[in-house]
Amino acid sequence: MLKALKAGLFGLALGALGAVALPTQEAEAQIQPMFPCCSSCNPNYQNCVNSAGNNPSIIAECVQTRSMCERLCRHTC
Questions:
Q1: What is the annotated signal peptide range for this record (predicted)?
Q2: pLDDT digits (tens, 9 = 90+) for 37-52
Q3: Please, what is the end-to-end C-alpha distance for the chain in angstroms?
Q4: Looking at the structure, do residues 7 and 30 belong to the same domain, yes or no?
Q5: How many structural domains does the chain have?
Q6: Cα 41 from Cα 64, distance rounded (Å)
Q7: CA–CA gap between residue 63 and residue 46 (Å, rounded)
Q8: Distance CA 60, CA 48 (A)
């Protein structure tokens, strides 16, 4: 009887762990595509600056965008 109780509690714990772990992994997989790969930050910055010409306000936006990209980017691409 005690073995059955232990097995039942163990199964319940595994079920609870699965219920928490699997949705977390799915949510993480859905969020990751929103963040760019770090390797894209500098090329995107260069394209932005090249298209900005001599406009200082657009160049400032390019700098801010690159800074944000480097803070949020994924290193695992």
A1: 1-21
A2: 999 999 999 999 999 9
A3: 51
A4: yes
A5: 2
A6: 11
A7: 10
A8: 10
